[in-house]
Input
Amino acid sequence: MREPTDLPWEARITSRVQETRDIFSLKLELVDPGIRAAYRSYPGQYNMLYLFGVGEVPISIVSDPDDDDPLEHTIRAVGRVTHGLERLRVGDTLGLRGPYGRGWPLQAAQGRNVVVISGGLGCAPVVSMIRYMLRRRDDYGQITILQGVKHSHDLIWRRQYQAWEKIRDVQVLLAADQGGPQWPFSVGNVTVLMERANIPPEDTVAVLCGPEPMMKAAIPRLLAQGVDPFHIWLSIERNMQCGIGHCGHCQVGPHFICQDGPVFRYPDIADWIDREGF
Amino acid sequence: MDEHTVFLPRAEANRLLEALAGSGFGRILGPVARDGTLLFQPIKDWDDLPVGVRDVQQPGSYRLQQQDDPRCFAWANGPQALKPLTFTPREIIWRAQRSPDGALSFQAAQDDPEPTAVIGVRACDLAALDLQERHFMHGRFPDPWFRKRREALFLVGVSCAHPAETCFCASTSDGPAITRGHDLGMAELDEGYLLWAGTQAGKTLLERLDLDEATASQRRAVEREIHQATVTQKRTLPGRHLKQALYERLQAGHWADVGERCLSCGNCTAVCPTCFCHMEMDEPALNGQSSEHLRQWSSCFNAEHSFMGHFIVRSDTRLRYRQWLTHKLGSWHEQYGRSGCVGCGRCITWCPVGIDITAEAHALLQETPDA
Output
């Protein structure tokens, strides 16, 4: 049934941060204490957020599900709903249903080295996994985090990346296609970073999230470095209106991204990545 | 047909409607000639059915003709299958309320569909309903609205003795005879109807009618008509599993050819009995206190379908036609275990420029596979 998980619940904004000119983060608290207590998500999953009278959008969950802090979503204002969400303030309410979809391979990654490659706002869906791993630092090997943005002013969470970098066996490499003032990091795309990254070929799991051309460019380099294709995982983004595999918008070839994904094992989606029209 | 096939004389056909009404079906739908086509409409009397009506279907063309004969089902199909009865073209699925202090609450739309009997369902329509059930009812999130409406239906399938020129159900193995998915199966002869049960509900209804068994010659006559309806179909889909062949030709030049002809209007997806895509949207009340969340049939031929905020995945018609065809004939196999096409031919007839899915599939297979 679509109920009870598939009717939105009321959620209240408890904090709001303007990350860049058009990116903002909302911390949300489910208003009903029973629902709040029962709510469980998994890194890499997403919620459908509902703006009253306007509609719904799928937004990945940024917070670590085991964290006691509220649910967190980082959103770029691009469409009708997200532009509306941008105008909400602390104390305002919205609707939330979820979580939906298959998340990151936390079990498969356990005991292994992990490379996280993200581009643009692709950093948001991978953050919950990074936070999850860092909370259980001993369960994972070397962690390499690569994040690329178009312009240096697009980078969000600069302090968080700098804090992660100080953790044992964590390498953080940041790049912008176009640098700018106060940009001490690399200039170029993510693949440039891969040359500088210390990616162990053995026992390495790679997770990718970002524009498909970026992921498509990164994968051959991972394979060339000896990473097993079955250890490469990608998160794919499409138009989603129902979140439950009914509305048909998110199909990529045979896959319903909303339920079969958004996270896929590379060989399962290899034929369709960055393929015009799919 | 089976060993319990019975015969209902034409003059007594209203007894079937009476038996259905007596079994609790407050609404009985049948094909009615209206607006130049055949639509499922409420019927009260057997004479409401399209007596002597024939349909002449061609790519981009649908015409009804009147003939002087007693048959009510001597046509192939109208633009509707069962789809609008179970997957409503536009419906409210939930409502949001906002109180003056800003608190939100949500209520699922309630729907108690009236028990409905449908007379004149084709084998292709039953096959399509089965596919829609796989999508809406048998996934991880069974759809409560679809399911309630489906469960309220009693289906009287009528074997098709008059396929249209656009039909190719024999090629997809979905028709023309009624063999599955029906509560009651029916075949029409000049003198009346052969009836057989497909479910317990159908069996109960037949017991209520208490009819004589059909004769061997009546059954042979029906079999001859079905055979004729099978062999007269000229259109075919190439092969049974087109998935691989189409996946190997995603770069074929023919996609641009059909993309030039296609108007991207979405008529094909609207009349297709298996297409399930829909959009969700909100309609807020003017007082700002409530909003209705709706779903409405959509189409992969619309720009909206692949809109991503900052770009459109399928920005031109070539890509949209390729999406539709590779889904319908290809990825349906992976998603639902069979092709999404049941051979009803509606997309051919109702296409304003007469694009023929069977011809396009054959043309694509003539192309060399991608390098």
Observations:
- DSSP finds 13 helices and 13 strands in chain B.
- Residues 243-366 of chain B form one domain.
